[in-house]
Amino acid sequence: MSKGVKAVMAGALALSLAACGTNNNSATGGNDNKGAANGSKATNQEKITITFQNIYPDPTDPKHGAVKKIVEQYEAEHSNIKIELDSLNTDQQKLKLKTQAASKEVPDITVVNPSAQMKPFVEAGLFAPLNDMVEQNGLKATFQEGILDWYSFDNNLYALPDGNNIGVVYYNKELFEQGGVKVPATFEEMIEVVKTLKSKGITPIAIGEKDTWTGSFLFMNVLLRTNGGPGFLQDVQDGKKTFEDQAFVDAVDSFQDLVQAGAFQEGATSFDYNAGENLFKTGKSAMYYMGSWATGGIETSSVNGKVGVFKFPTVKGKGNPNEFMLAPGSGFAISANSKHLQETKDFLNYFMLNFPKVMFEAKGAIGIAQKVEGDFKAQGYSEMAMEILDLFKEVQGGDLSFDNTMNPGTSQAHLTSIQDLFGQKRDSKEIGKDHQTAYTSNKE
Fold it and tell me: Record's PROSITE patterns (predicted)?
C-alpha cells in the first residue's frame, strides 16, 4: 500500500472515530488561543506585517471564514502583528507564485500542492524547513498519520496541508427526480443520465474548467478505471507503460464521450473553480465531481439537504469504485527569505493548532488533514456529510492527480490538452502520442 493510500486510510479512521465520537465538540489541537506565538521574537514596539497568500476567496467556503476568524483572533492577541491576506483562486495563485518565485519574492506564507508540484520550489531553496515548528505545542501529532510525507523532501518538512480528500460525485436529488433519472452504476449509464437530463433542460454536470486542474481531476478518475486500478502514471515513469497504451486511449475516448453528450454547462472553460461550483450550490446543475473538500461549502448553500453522493462508477466494465482519486490538500509553506521568519512560523503554528476546531464548528471539517474530535451528527453536519464519512471507510486505494505526480512541463501539456477537449473532439491516439512526446521532452 502506498503512503498516499495509507494517509487517506488513516484519515478515514480518524474521521470515522470522530463521527461516532464523543459529545465534546472540540478539535484536536484546540488550546487556549495563545498558540506558539508566545515564543515570538517580536516585541510590542516592533510592528510586523506577515503576508498570507491563500486559495480561499469564496465567502461561502468555510475555509474562507476560518482563515478570517483565526487571523482576527491572532491580531487581537498580538497588537504588533498584522496579517495581510492575499486570497486568490487556485490557478491565479499558482500563476502568481510562479512569478514571485522567479524573482525570489515569495510571500511569508504561500500555498503549494504536494509531491511533484512542490519539488521545484524546494530544490530552488525557496521554502523554509518546518521541522522545528511542528514540534511546538504538539502540532505534528494533530495531523493524520502519513499525510506529512507528501510535503517532505530529504527528511525536511516544507508545508502543512489543509486537506486529505477523495474524489466523489455530488448529485442534486430533486433535479434527479425532475429528470426521471437514478444514480448510475456504470460510466455508460452516467452518459445516458447526462443525455436525459440535457434533453429536459437540466445542466447535467457543473465544472470550473477555466481552472484547468478540474477537468484533469475528473479525467484521471476515468483513467483510474480504464487502467483497472491505480498506478498508470507511475508505470509510465517506471518505463512499463506509455501514454499511447490502450488504457490511456480508452480514458480519452470515454472522457470525450461525456463531453460530446453535453455533460457540462455552456462555456465551461470560462467558469473558474468557484463559479463552476456555485452552479451546483445554487441548484443549477444536477451533478458535480469534486474532492470531498467541497462538502462544507455545499452544506452552507441553498441546496443543503437536497444533495447525495456516489462513487465514480466503473468504465467499460473496468475498475473498482472503492478506489478513489486521492487528494492530499494544498499546503502552507513559509518563504525561506521571510524578513520575519520566526514570527511567521509562530503565526502558522497558531493557525494550524486552531484550524481543526474552527473548521469543525463551521461544519467544514470533512476531509481536512488534521484529526478531528467531536460528534459530527450532534454538531449538525448533514446527511450528505455523514455519507462522505462512510465513503472514507471504504477506500481501498487510488491515485494522486496528474499534476501532483508528473513534472511541471508534462503536467502543463496535459492540462492544456484536456481543456482543449471541451471545445473540440480529437483523435484519442493523437492525444496519447502528444502526451508521450511531452513526457519524453520534459523527462528529468
Answer: PROKAR_LIPOPROTEIN
